[in-house]
C-alpha cells in the first residue's frame, strides 16, 4: 500500500472534511451557546486547532496528487447529516458533542489508520489529538454536574445518542466507500472476531471519555 492508494485518499478526505466541519460547528457553538466571553474564547481556540488540522490534511492530499475538494466530496452528505441530527440545544450538549461525539468518530479514523502506512498513521494520530478539546469539555461538564447533579441523566442520554449517531455514520461511510471500509478491518476483514475486537476497543475508549466526564456509559 502506498500513501496515494485510493483507500488512503478516502481516509484523508473524510478526515479533512470532518475537521473542516468541526471547525465550523465549534465556532458556531462558541458564538451562539457559550455562556461567557471566556467560554466563547476558549471554544474558539479549540475550533482554530481543528482548522489547523484541516489545513494539514488538505496539504497532504495535495502533496499526494489528489484534489482535496474531490477527496472530501463523497463524505459531505453523511457528515453534514450527522451534524444536523446532533445539533446541540444548549452549552452542555455542545460540550458533550465536542468531546464524546467527535471523539468516537475519531476512534473510527484511528482504527482505519492502523492498516495504512507509518507516515499516514502518524499523520492521523497528529490531527486527532484532542487534549485541548478534552480538557476543556471535562472541566466544564464536571463543574456543571457538581453544581446541578440533575444534569447527569440528560447529558448521559445525549452522550449515548452521540455514539449511536456516530456508529450509524460510520456504517454509511463504509457502505459507500468499500476501500475505506477495508481499512477498518484490514486483511482480517472476513474474521468476525477481529471486527468484534475493533468494536471492543471503540467501546473501551468511549467508556474512558464518559468516566472522565463523570457520566455512566449506559447500554
**Separation, N- and C-terminal Cα atoms:** 38 Å
- Please identify the structural class as seen in this structure: mainly alpha
Overall spatial form: globular
User: Main beta sheet, described?
Assistant: none
Query: H/E element string?
Result: HHHHHHHHHH
Observed structural traits:
single chain; 219 residues; mainly alpha; 10 helices; 0% strand; globular
Task: Describe the 3D structure.
- With 219 residues, the chain is mostly helical.
- Helices cover 80% and strands 0% of the residues.
- The chain contains 10 helices and no strands.
- The protein has helices at 6-33, 37-63, 68-72, 76-85, 91-113, 118-127, 131-147, 151-176, 178-185, 192-213.
- It is globular.
- It starts with 5 loop residues before the first helix and ends in a 6-residue tail after the last helix.
Please outline the helices and strands.
Blueprint: H1 6-33, H2 37-63, H3 68-72, H4 76-85, H5 91-113, H6 118-127, H7 131-147, H8 151-176, H9 178-185, H10 192-213
Helix pairs in contact: 1-2, 1-4, 1-5, 1-9, 4-8, 5-7, 5-8, 5-9, 5-10, 8-9
Entry summary:
This protein is about 80% helix and about 0% strand. It is built from ten helices and no strands. Helix 1 (about 5-35) packs parallel to helix 4 (about 75-85).
